[in-house]
Amino acid sequence: MAMKRPALEAKISNFLSPLVIAGAGGFLVVIALLPKIAEMIRTQLQSALSPTWASVVNIALGVGATVFLVAQLPIFLIWFERKVAAHVQDRLGPMRVGWHGVLQSFADGIKLLFKEDIIPEGADRPLFRIAPVLVIMGAFAAFAVVPWGHGLIISDLNIGLLYIVAITSLGAIGILMAGWASNNKYSLYGGMRSAAQLVAYEIPTALVILVVVIQVGSLSLQDVIASQSDGLWGENRWLLTRMYGLNLIAFVIFFICGLAETNRNPFDIPEAESELVAGFHTEYSGMRFAFFFLAEYGAMWLVAGVAAILFLGGWVGPYFSGPLVFFLKTLILVFVQMWLRWTLPRLRVDQLLALCWKYLIPITLAVLVTVAGLSVPPG
Amino acid sequence: MTTARVYKDLEPDSAYAFKPEDLEDDEMILNMGPQHPSTHGVLRIELKTDGEIVKDARPHIGYLHRNFEKHAENIDYQGVIPFTDRMDYVGSMANSLTYAVAVEKLMAIEVGERVKSLRVLVSELQRIASHLLAIGTYGLDIGAFTPFLHCFREREKILDLFEWLCGARLLYNYNWVGGVSHDLPEGWTDKARQFLGEFAPVIDELDDLLSLNKIFTNRTATVGIIPPDLAVAYALSGPNLRGSGIKWDVRREEPYCGYEKYDFEIPVGQGRYGPIGSCWDRYYVRVEEMRQSVRILHQALDKLPAEGDVHEKVPKRVKPNPGEAYARTETPRGELAFYIVSDGGLIPYRVKGRSPCFVAMSLFHEIARGEMIADIIAIIGSLDIVLGEIDR
After folding, report:
1. Are the beta carbons of B144 and A189 separated by less than 8 Å?
2. In this structure, what CATH number is given to the domain that contains residue B207?
3. How far apart are CA A204 and CA A211, in angstroms?
4. B39: nearest CA in chain A?
5. What integer best gives the mean pLDDT of chain A?
6. pLDDT(A16) > 60
7. Is the ipTM reported for this complex over the cut 0.85?
8. In the prediction, which pLDDT does B15 show?
9. Does any domain span residue B200?
10. B30 touches chain A (CB under 8 A)
């Protein structure tokens, strides 16, 4: 009888693995065809409903699609990260659950759902409950202004970049809240470190975004992409290669700050597992913990996506354009984040502050001033 | 009666622990351990912190106390060896070697050349395995996950060699009084040579990945400074002492197992990225020691006498004459010594272990004061303590 269980599990995983892989493939096809689908829905809506209702339903569908997409991404990214980590570390990673472990994230998700939800004694219960929601909100709400293609944006705010800078800071408040509410000294340290880190990396991030804004002349993400419409060569090429390398410096600084924003190595100071056990989420379990986890992967995708938009042309590709191009560019940047995480040691909290205040801010300021000077039209 | 009182005074929650009423306004007591990912076992450290700054630190030991010395007074001499294995459980070969050498000194047994070579072989392999663990987990302490697994991959190969040799992977019971438990299996030396060939480039790779990494040196090269005079005053030994720039190695100063015939260098801390005696210096002494161990192993494999019965000098009954003996060796963690008193019976009258980790831990509060919380982890890791040996 003991032999039957593995056979059943193998059957289930043999059945589910092709489904998941086919699902992922279908996902990519849908992403590639997204502009056509969206256009179709839009025309259908406009013919069926009054203009106001058409736009309301349109936005609602966009929100639904984006939330669905962003919520599914971590499932793939967690598997991807574990595979990247494993191969960096000379091992195989998840192999048992499905073909090359593709079902691992689903298994983990089910496990987290069924785990006991523990709120420690002496915790500040309302804050303890709100914190993970705030964290995941900060990470997901920013996607409202991230364009996936021509017209594929929930809301093309004219202050899109400002909105992103503002809303992503919400996550840090959530972390601070979680650290305080847990009634645990390690969590408190994690929360405090997160606050110190926020102050340090937000300023260079904002300044680097200004470098782009000066050149583009707009805060809207679609305008930023439109100014890079020529692809790799030409007058309106990617910002990365313009301005005699100054934009390259800006890109690197933005990426470093992005790492700090997502709390990942070498800046995983608030959770620093070897120092603070797990930092701010030490006391969280089950789905609440999963929220922090999802938010981290959402934030990774967001930072990589914004970097791709600001400096690599977003959905305007070198050979073909569309959501798939944006997806691939972001995925490459996410891979770099993972690669760095599994290679580098962690900075100490005062070293991060020194890095941001003593090096990144002055360099960014210098780049900003030079770019501003060069951007002034002659005469 | 006096002993009882001394023990009572050492109870953690009486006179020794920090008292909340002594704290100043911004201070907080942070308990690190005994369940903490980076205290390398079941160590509890009480930290008096002011924000991220550690104002004072007090280690509490004893969570892994297993009565080794009392056990040793109740079993025969050979029976003690498995207990010594469990002291420093990642350097078992070196512990049992020290004990065996001490008993042999007591009984005036001179082991054969092949046994000596075998003991050098296993203890140097054990040194590499132990240092790999120390280096890998140190990377983990500083936040780099990958070197840990690379180190464990290599350590696994050594454990495979040990398993082939004596059947065990962690606690070997290999060094017996008067000999070793098993002779080399056929083909073992070839495998060992193959391992050494594969291992040498890994150390250079480790340099690129971790040792010379800018973030890593910034984190470790300016913290946990042990000045040479402090190190000597506390009788520090092993890589921790050599990290402070003092050239002292029992293998050279007081050779055993024929170490005088091997050609090797004693690496000491150079202070390359900061003051001498920093965490990085101690760490890098271990890396360099692995290179030297590879050198010694090559020589030991070349010199290995072809013939010789490894059980030739094993006494049928270990019954030393009344007397006492003290023997010390250079284990991966420093100078381990056993002081054995015999009353002429079949069981030892007293076995006292001199633990290098205990000495390192007694120095800890001196260097922890004034550092940051993240540095506390760096300091514990750089001292490379094993709680099994501290508590015994």
Report:
1. no
2. 1.10.645.10
3. 11
4. A274
5. 83
6. yes
7. no
8. 62
9. yes
10. yes
The DSSP annotation for B262-277 comes to: S---------SSSSTT
Q: Which residues contact A256 (CB under 8 A, 6 or more apart)?
A: A360
The enclosing H or E element of B113 equals helix B113-142
> Which chain B residue lies closest to A90 (C-alpha atoms)?
B150
B372 in contact with chain A, both atoms CB, cutoff 8 A: yes
- Please tell me whether the peptide bond between B201 and the residue prior to it is cis, using omega within 30 degrees of 0: no
Q: Cβ separation of B141 and A273 shorter than 8 Å? A: no
Q: What are the domain boundaries of chain A?
A: 1-114, 120-379
> 3-class SS at B334?
strand
- More confident position, A376 or A183: A183
Task: Provide CB contacts within 8 A for B285, sequence distance 6+.
Answer: B239, B242, B243, B267, B268, B269
Cα–Cα distance measured from residue B63 to residue B388, given in angstroms and rounded to the nearest whole number: 9
Residue at B45 is within a domain? no
The answer to whether position B56 is within a domain reads no
Q: Which of residues 319-338 of A touch B (CB under 8 A)?
A: none
pLDDT of residue B6: 54
Residue A101: count of CB within 10 angstroms of its CB: 20
Residue A377's pLDDT band (cuts 50, 70, 90)? low
A321-325, A362-366, B318-322: which range is least confident on average?
Answer: A321-325
Q: CB-based contact (8 Å) between A343 and chain B?
A: yes
In chain A, what are the helix, strand and coil shares in percent, each to the nearest 5?
75, 0, 25
The total of structural domains in chain B comes to: 1
* Mean pLDDT, rounded, for B278-298: 91
Q: How many CB pairs under 8 A join A and B?
A: 78
Task: Give the number of other Cβ atoms within 10 Å of residue B8's Cβ.
Answer: 10
In DSSP terms, which residues pair with A374 in a beta bridge? none
pTM of the model: 0.85
Residues 6+ apart with CB under 8 A from B147: B135, B136, B139, B206, B209, B210
Return the DSSP state at A347: P
Determine if residue A20 is left, alpha or beta; phi over 0 gives left, psi from -120 to 50 gives alpha, anything else beta.
alpha
Q: A135-174, pLDDT tens digit by residue?
A: 888 888 888 888 887 777 777 778 888 898 888 888 888 8
Ramachandran region of residue A264, left (φ > 0), alpha (ψ -120 to 50) or beta?
Answer: beta
Which of A189, A274, A355 to mutate to test binding with chain B, by most B CBs within 10 Å of its CB? A274
Spell out the residues 6+ positions from residue A231 whose beta carbon is closer than 8 angstroms to its own. A237, A238, A313, A316, A317, A318, A319
Cross-strand bridge partners of residue B351: B340
Residue B125 lies in a domain: yes
- Determine the structural domain holding residue B178 and report its residue range: 81-365+375-387
Confidence of residue A379 (pLDDT cuts 50, 70, 90): low
Q: How confident is the model at residue A333 (pLDDT cuts 50, 70, 90)?
A: very high
Average pLDDT over residues A70-90: 87
